């Protein structure tokens, strides 16, 4: 019997989710939002938007 694993995300998938999170935060906090950093534990990827 094999163990179930969730489908792995591609880099493109992770960036799409990160952009959705950024858009949500930006729409909520507007000018109060200074920056957003989303880090991936396995492979270091960071996109900083100001």
List keywords for this structure.
50 residues; mainly alpha; 0% strand; elongated
Description:
The protein has 50 residues and is mainly α. The protein has one domain. The protein has 1 helix and no strands.
Q: Element order, helices and strands? A: H
Fraction of residues in H or I helices: 25-40%
> What is the arithmetic mean of pLDDT?
79
Low-confidence stretches are none
Largest sheet: none
Shape estimate: elongated
Terminal Cα separation, in Å? 48 Å
Instruction: Give the strand tally.
Output: 0
In short:
The protein has 50 residues and is mostly helical. The protein is built from 1 helix and no strands.
SSE inventory with pairings:
Blueprint: H1 11-29
